[in-house]
Prior knowledge:
The chain is an alpha/beta fold and about 550 residues long. It has 3 domains: about 5-135, Type II secretion system, protein E, N-terminal domain (GMP Synthetase, Chain A, domain 3), CATH 3.30.300.160; about 145-275, Beta-Lactamase (2-Layer Sandwich), CATH 3.30.450; about 280-560, P-loop containing nucleotide triphosphate hydrolases (Rossmann fold), CATH 3.40.50.300. Residues about 155-165 have low confidence and may be disordered.
Amino acid sequence: MILPEDKFKEVVVKAGVVAEKDLPELEAYAVTTGRSFDDVLMDRGLVTDEKLGQIMAGYLKVPFVALSKIQIPEQVFEIVPERLARRQKIIAFARDGAGIRVAVADPAKTEVVEMLAKKTGSKILVHLATQQDIFNVLRTYEKDLQKSVDDLLKEDVWSARSVLEDPPVAKIVDLLIDTAYQERASDIHIEPEETDSLIRFRIDGILHDVVTAPKYLHERIITRIKVLSSLRTDEHLSAQDGKMRMQLQEEILDIRVSIVPIVAGEKAVLRLLSSRFRDYSFGDLGMNEADLKKVEGAYTKSYGMVLSTGPTGSGKTTSIYSVLKVLNTREKNITTIEDPVEYRIKGANQIQVNVKTNLTFANGLRSILRQDPNVIFVGEIRDNETAGIAVNAALTGHLVLSTLHTNDAATAIPRLSDMKVEPFLVASTVNIIVAQRLVRRICQQCKQEIAVEWEEFTKNFPQESLRVVFGSNHKVSAYAGKGCRVCRNTGYSGRVGLFEVLEITKEIRKLITEKADSELIAKKAIEEGMRTMLQDGLDKINRGVTTIEEVLRATKAEFMS
């Protein structure tokens, strides 16, 4: 935010974006969700990113430019080197008789403007653009990765004496990681094929082919990754796991490396552990206000259990980290046991599971209880022993956070019973269960309303869920992204969660103690106001957050079973 928060609120009230009487409620929501005030305004649909930029430009008396609506000549864009543009959030977008026009996110940063004026010998005309707009434009002007790799391969890759001294291979690996980071990819897959090497990025949960490299280069890339990860370069027939760090412009990036031998050679998967992911809050992930209040009520207790459930890749750990971020104060001792420790949390004591030294979840949890903890995070409850210790820890005055692999919130209760935890202990300790899935968010730059008949909804979704979300109103809005430069013509940009929050109320406790099955517990929770993941998905379709296809992909297995 380019203005102090108090001044920013004064400006948006004066601009008519929000009434002064509504400020306290919006401020409280910002605190609860851990989001900035301007994000809250956009999240509520009170103002768009572009409109907010226009308001700020008007207040600062600086011209405003919407970069995504103009075509920037390549020779003009290259006036500001890409790394400088990213670091300083500045883009040259036009050159005319008056001088060079540049867009900046913060007009107060005059040093870089003065430097450009000196370098180019031209007058620099400053315009304001939003930070998000600048980020989107930088993405659209990135060089094609395949072309960049091909250009590097034109260098003499055979001239070096060893892989370590082979500049093109080192540059290619650095380029792959940097590009994956800029594209917000979570994983890089480097796969050997019969005649070449295929490189794919997982972006928003979906794998995309990005580069095809000659087969002779594959082994060299794998060896380079092994060297950076301190793995054995002479081992080609067994799986190896390691970790590496890369110094990028934006941050020091931790990368988890897995290499396995397959028929055509060795395959490497690099998991990018960016700090951007641990900065998410429940609000960023798309949880509605009513559910947010329930979750906040559960984790502000000094004891009990908060469970996050869902399949692999559903964002469970990200959700738990968003809670730990709120709880992480100097007055609390937070200790975690994880496999693996994905993100470092400053101020928390994080333990890595190590089966070779018998440091299992259960043994580690026993040791943690002797460390005087306030908050304990158990990466996953996998077995009876871990479940029993975790429940007893929650019973004896500790707040325990953990994850479970179950399809929905209610199923977590019989899952604990299957792990030999007595129903009365489950009823006494569990505060709340959050089930979730991740779906792709519609790209805001190319979103458009599409015509969908009511029959299309009734064919794909249960009548009961449609009735809960839409009532008797058969007019439903649906949206899709048509594809643009910002989203790489996919129609999607980023991800959002579908949530189901089961609060353990007095009535639910009674059912748990009576050993009721998950269907009965879910039915009671719905009667008490719980919104299912499917209903949350339908609401997000109607609000233009995601598409029908994404909600069906994430939830159909559940409501068809």
